[in-house]
Amino acid sequence: MLLKELSPKIESALNNQVEMEAASSQYYLAMASWAEVEGYNGIAQFLYRHSDEERVHMLKLIKFINERGGHGLVPALKQPTVKFKNINAVFEQVFSHELLVSKEINNLVDMALAEKDYATQTFLQWYVTEQIEEERMARHILDKLKLIGEDKGGLYIFDRDLATLNTADQH
Ligand code: OFO
Fold it and tell me: How far is the CA of 1 from the centre of ligand 1 (A)?
């Protein structure tokens, strides 16, 4: 298949997604650091891994843009939220953030199809699948937290389990 060069519109939209993935990495890094300081070491490990994966998502985009004749731009980042009310608040934010990312990915797919940029559309399928997994994982964690409620023993076990829970990329 002949690869068409990126249109300026698609290049700029993909660079916005670079920024979103970089911001995701920062969000989860801030959550990980907070969880570690609060003594939730398992949750912290899980979130550190998640942060690393978001950076990989960003890199994949940068490389794709560059390979298609564009320029992947490293964005400036704002400081994310660094303090949280509790563990529930952390994972509620993870879930709503992932929903937002999924929406953006879907918009990108729409744009690629409208421009008949099938190479970009194919490339984005990896992100579509990834977002399904990430949403599923965040939902699963929130369900568990609902079951645990105020039970401190339950939270202790949850923290221990998250140390080894696969993040979406590792399924
Ligand atoms: Fe990049 O997968 Fe979440 O946001």
Answer: 28
